[in-house]
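Proteins fold. Shown next:

***
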Amino acid sequence: MKKILLLSLIIISSAFIFNSCDEPEGPYIEANPYTGIYDSDLPIRKILLEDFTGYKCTNCPLAADEIGRLQASYGDHIIPISVHTGWFAGQSSPEDPDFETEEGAAIAEALDILDTPPWGVINRKVFSEGDEYEWSYNEWSTLIFGILQTNQFADIDISMHSEYIEAAKTVNVEIEAEEMVTIDAPLKICLYMIESHIIGKQSYGSYTDPEYEHNHVLRAGMIESDPTWGEAITLPLTKTYSFTLA
């Protein structure tokens, strides 16, 4: 089984403004407003897409396929996290995938996500009065396109550097962040660990695929004081966070 650890950084304001980085190297620059060609040194806007899913969900691979299409269309603008929670994620036997986390369950409860996946939450944002947080995968592209039409650049410039100390099984993540525009709202920072290229069971239509590849799976929150929702910060920020693997 091939496993790759990735780091996902999210800075959150009380107004649910998200700017996130999924890789610990920079610079966070992209060639065009969507995937192609503009000449700018400004950091690009990141869009958090939380995919609420489960290995027993027969339609969830369709949502995963849509994430792949969005990444192909919008490149590094898209930061996907697969949140396995609820009945469709629960183990029926010890051999079944175990991707549930306390953090994922808390996020789903706080956002009142229906236990009928797949559902996606974009930037933890309600787009219109009366809307819910969750959206069907066939609506994600339209919502994301609307965000990027407004502004392709980030409100916060974030850089990350990480190191793994094998003897201690500890990940150290150094974060620097500064405002690109004036932000008056309170801010919090969340740091999540996700894992990709996990081979395991997945219901898919009318059959079960025993060798399905699960990607960007939420594994843990990395800020000890509050793994789910992170901690309050002020900008500019320079800080190192440490997380010990179980």
User: Anything to note?
Assistant: The mean pLDDT is 85. The longest helix spans residues 60-74. The CA atoms of residues 3 and 182 lie 39 Å apart.
